[in-house]
Amino acid sequence: MSRIPVRAGLARYKMELQETTQSRDSMGGVTDSWCKNQDVYCDLRPLSASERVSGDQIMQAATHRIRIRAISGLRITPSMRLILRGRDCANDRIFNIQWADNALQGEPATELLVVEDLNAS
Which range marks the domain in which residue 26 is found? Predict the structure, then answer.
């Protein structure tokens, strides 16, 4: 991946970075839920559509590339997701992170390959 900075004009999408947390319910079961990590401004670009077949399963390839300015102390993992909020909750777009190239010290941006979750409610 190239090490090109994210210009302010390109980082026009405000997205909510979320991570999973686990909590125990009253019966001792574990419940996964999403909680907000922080808001980030990013450049969101669609990739060409493709699907891969692995065994008998169809696996969707990345649908978008997202570039975020490097933020000190922020490490993005595939267990996180990004939410692009719409005018109401029905228009929210959810992007599940498949791969993250976390920026190292002095590098200008973190690049993500994501899959848009079209079945999210």
Answer: 13-116
